[in-house]
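Note on ligand handling. Small-molecule inputs were canonicalized before submission; formal charges were left as drawn, and no protonation-state enumeration was performed. Where a ligand contained multiple stereocentres, the stereochemistry in the source SMILES was retained. For S-adenosylmethionine, this procedure yielded the string shown in the input block below.
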Amino acid sequence: MNSPQNSSPSPQTPGPAALPTRGRVLVHAAVIYDAVQPLVTLGQEARLNRWLAEQISLPDGEQVLDVGCGTGLLTVQIARGNPGLHVIGIDASRPMIDVANRKRSSSDCRFQQALGEDLPFPDSHFAMVTSALFFHHVDRDLKQQTLQEIYRVLKPGGELLIADMDKPYTLLGWAMSWTAWKLFRQPEIKENMDGVLREEIETAGFLNLTELSRFSGYIRVLHARRGS
Ligand SMILES: C[S@@+](CC[C@H](N)C(=O)[O-])C[C@H]1O[C@@H](n2cnc3c(N)ncnc32)[C@H](O)[C@@H]1O
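Structure output:
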């Protein structure tokens, strides 16, 4: 765990293209990510991010963290849909953070290169942590480490909102997940298809785990809380 820092805006630091992690960090994909993502989600990317942002109901001034933010598509949607909140997105990829900073940063929507499993924030800092399509990029142990880090930085009673690959619920969703698993040789995807994310969320200590919605045949939205 990094030593706690506050979450004030950090100037863009020249760092490695990818912070060291077992997670699958997207470096070269950053330049095409925004164009490709709507295709990967069968045209649902904007609807999914809007829907996620609409689930947030927090008092003004609260802080929200978006883990594995990529180019900041969800992060900015949260900030735009919830003026008054302070949103920060983190990703292990510097090119992703560069794109996010260039296209989407503002005083209430900031981006920082950091690892999900080693969050550079103090304990009990955020009212909510979100994450979209990140957890199928990390193996089971890293899923657990990241969830424990999220638990640590959440305030007591704080909310976890995850949209990710999970048990497919349509034939097309199953075919897409299976193809991605085989094509990218990514066992982390198979773990998600087997539903391990829910087990890991509960193992990390979260309470009241529920499925809020489903998208694109293979994405499920999970919500849970840190105990008070
Ligand atoms: C599929 S993208 C999702 C991006 C964004 N949340 C979205 O919905 O468009 C997954 C992201 O996770 C990042 N990532 C992979 N391992 C990571 C880690 N250990 N810590 C932080 N980010 C990581 C990748 O660099 C990539 O940008």
